[in-house]
Amino acid sequence: MEFDLARLQISEALRYRRRVSGTTASLGYLPERLLLDGGCGTSLIARGLDVRAEPTALWNITRPDEVRAVHHGFIEAGAAAIQTNTFVANRLALEARGISEVRACNLAAAAVAREAAAGSGVMVIGNIGPSGQVPPPQGDANLSQLEETFAEQASYLAAGGVDLLHIETMVHPKEMRAALRGAREGAPGMPVVVSIACRASGDSFKSTMGFAIDSMLAVAIEEKADGIGANCMLCPIEMVPLIELIVAKASVPVFAKPTIAPDGGAPLYPDEFAEGVARLFAAGARAVGGCCGTSFKDISTARRRLDRGYR
Q1: The whole model's pTM is what?
Q2: Which of 24, 39, 105, 109 has the most crowded Cβ, counting Cβ within 10 A?
Q3: Model pLDDT for residues 185-206, shown as the tens digit of each residue
Q4: Domains and CATH numbers, the chain
Q5: 31 in helix, strand or coil?
C-alpha cells in the first residue's frame, strides 16, 4: 500500500509539473525515497541481444518489444522510476558505431518507456551517458561540440515526454559541465540530475579519470544541477560514504545507482544488494537503484527490504 501511494503521489506531481512547464526546474515533487530501476542495457544483453552486432540504443527501434519487456520487468519488481535505454544514444557515441539515427533512437526509447509506464504512476527518466570523447588537456574533444551533442539528445528526450534527465557516469569535470549546459539548452525547464563515477582514494573519492570528488561536485553545484549523485564502479556498501559526502555538500536531492559487484569482484547476492540500498537511503539518498548487472530480482528484493523500513 505504501508503494502504491508513492506512485500515485509521483503521478499527481508529474501532471502538475507538466501543467506549469516553462517554470524553473525542480525536483521538489520527488517522494522522500524513490526506488529506481536496475541495469537496462545489461538486462537486454542477458535476454540474448548482441551489443557487438548493433548499439544498445538501436534496439529501441529494432527490438522495442525486448526493451519494453525490460522496463515492465523493473516496474513489476517495484521500481517507481525507470530510465530510458539511451545511455549511448548521443550523436558522438552513435556515430562512432556508424549509426546516424540519433533522433529516432531517442524518441523511440522515450516512447517505449512511456508505454511501459502507462497507467502505473512510474516516472520516466531520460538517460544520458558520456560522449566517449575526452576533453583537453587529457584528450582533444571539442567542448562546443560536446555541449551541442548533449543539447541535441536532451531535446529529443524532452520531446519524447520524459519527466526529467539523468546524466550518468561523468568522470571529467569539463565534460560534465558541457553535459549540464547542453541539457539546459536542449531541454529548458526540465530538471537535470548528474551522477559521477568514482573509486575510493585514500579517505575520499576520485572519478575514474582521477579528478577529486570535490572538483566534480563544484562543477555540478556551479551549474545548478537539480540533483547530484553517483553511479557505477562501487557496490552499495562501498558507496555509502560517498553519498554521505555528497549529501553534506549538496542542497539538492542525491541519487545513487551502485553496481551489483564491488570493483573487480563477484556479484552480490540480492539480499546483500538490498541491505546496501537501505543503507544508502539511510545515508540521505533521495533516489536509489542499480547500475550495470542489477537485475529484476535485485530490485524486487530491495523493494521487499524497504517495505520493512529504511534502517
Answers
A1: 0.92
A2: 109
A3: 999 999 999 999 999 999 999 9
A4: 29-307 (3.20.20.330)
A5: coil
